[in-house]
Write a structure and sequence with these properties.
This is ABC transporter permease. It comes from Candidatus Roizmanbacteria bacterium CG22_combo_CG10-13_8_21_14_all_34_12. Belongs to the ABC-4 integral membrane protein family. Residues 282-393 form the ABC3 transporter permease C-terminal domain. It contains 14 helices and ten strands. By secondary structure, it is α+β, with helices and mostly antiparallel strands. It folds into two domains: 2-52 and 268-397, no CATH class; 84-251, no CATH class. A six-stranded mixed barrel has the order 2-3-8-5-7-6. The radius of gyration is 31 Å and the shape is elongated. The two termini are 33 Å apart.
Length: 400
């Protein structure tokens, strides 16, 4: 044990004497570990965010959309070009006994003009059931209700982000007018923050929500992009899907619509991002390879610099294994140093992005990062270490 600490102390003394060389040698490992840990943390955060969003919908939620959304594990072409639904479809699905509540969905994007400034935004038009189905909560004001839907009132519920951008604060947004495409609406409520945006999915905080009947102002054909529904919890979801499918088959062919559970969407999304994350980590790992090659090169230089020292140690009784161990320890120490610095930098970076994105590190990624760093030191340190260990004592002492 004393010998081991002696080797460690000797390595640290060498690093102290050549600080810049030590830092530059560890830089490749530092960058590689930083990139791998950061990308892994982003992937974990994204997965958690998506799971939380779908968990909020519950297990008794279904979506009906045009085309085959999950065809062959991805989005089928017909989903982009498929039929859009209408009021007949809505009324047909309302008659399905296992469907407790249903909302149609349509949208309109454009420049929303408020009292402070204008912002590009989107209005989602739905029924009053949408807020319960999607797990929305009101922060200020109220949701629109069935009377608003029946009377086609020009009212909107605002997300907190768009309310602050257009009016300065969510309190100021209540009862104010906002116009989109020269159509004026009154804001009657602001929802609590749902988050999202970017890779995290739709940014509900930046959207408006209005009665679907009012949305017919922008769409005289009265079409919907999809339906969302809550089903009877006492009825098996497979049975509900079959009933909904039979209702839709009265007007459409089987490949013209999809009935999707949130868990199915979650599985596909996680699969896509899982593959993407592996690709990004593989690309980032190239830095680790480059760092390993750098360590091997610098260890060869170290062997040359210490040739006479190695010869003297061999002459006074040091074994080949002692010399081999010394240089492998130095290579591993360089790798762990770079790994620790990369890990610390990644932690700081993750703390910086957490207010905007739910990235986080777990024990597995930390252990893996330090384990990989150590492995790189061993793998790329073996050849230089063997070269040092195989030096003949007499030749090494005479080396200049």
């Amino acid at each position: 044990m004393t010998y081991f600490f002696f080797i460690i102390k000797s390595a640290l003394e060498d690093f102290r004497r050549s600080k810049m060389q030590t830092f530059l040698t560890s830089l490749g490992i530092l960058i590689g570990v930083f990139a791998v840990v950061t990308l892994t943390a982003m992937g974990l955060g994204l997965k958690k965010y998506i799971s939380d969003q779908f968990d909020a919908l519950g297990t008794n939620t279904l979506f009906v959309a045009p085309g085959k959304l999950l065809e062959s594990g991805g989005m089928g072409a017909s989903s982009l070009l498929g039929n859009r639904f209408d009021l007949k479809d809505l009324n047909s699905l309302k008659r399905v006994r296992s469907v407790k509540s249903i909302t149609p969905l349509s949208s309109k994007s454009g420049t929303a003009k408020g009292t402070k400034k204008s912002e590009f935004s989107t209005i989602f038009f739905s029924s009053d059931a949408f807020f319960d189905i999607s797990g929305f909560e009101i922060d200020k004001g109220r949701f629109f209700d069935k009377r608003d839907v029946d009377k086609r009132t020009k009212v909107l519920i605002a997300g907190p982000k768009i309310a602050e951008k257009l009016f300065g604060s969510i309190n100021e947004a209540l009862d104010k007018k906002v116009s989109i495409d020269n159509v004026s609406f009154t804001i009657i409520g602001v929802i609590k923050s749902k988050g999202g945006g970017g890779f995290g999915g739709p940014d509900y905080d930046s959207y408006f929500f209005g009665p679907y009947t009012t949305g017919f102002i922008f769409d005289p054909d009265k079409k919907f992009i999809r339906f969302a529904m809550k089903t009877d919890e006492n009825i098996n979801i497979a049975t509900v899907k079959e009933e909904v499918k039979n209702a839709m088959l009265k007007r459409y062919k089987d490949d013209e619509f999809s009935i999707v559970e949130p868990t199915e969407i979650l599985s596909v999304v996680n699969g896509i991002f899982g593959i993407l994350n592996l690709v990004l980590v593989a690309i980032a790992s190239i830095s680790l390879l480059v760092g390993g090659i750098g360590i091997m090169n610098i260890m060869y230089v170290t062997v040359s610099d210490k040739t006479k020292e190695v010869g003297i140690r061999r002459a006074i009784g040091a074994r080949k294994n002692d010399i081999l161990f010394q240089f492998i320890v130095e290579a591993v120490a360089l790798s762990i140093l770079g790994g620790a610095l990369g890990l610390g930098l990644a932690y700081i970076g993750i703390l910086f992005v957490q207010p905007f994105f739910p990235a986080y590190m777990d024990v597995t990624s930390v252990t893996l990062a330090l384990g990989v760093s150590s492995a790189i030191g061993i793998i790329f340190g073996v050849l230089p270490a063997r070269k040092a260990a195989n030096l003949e004592p007499v030749e090494a002492i005479r080396y200049e």
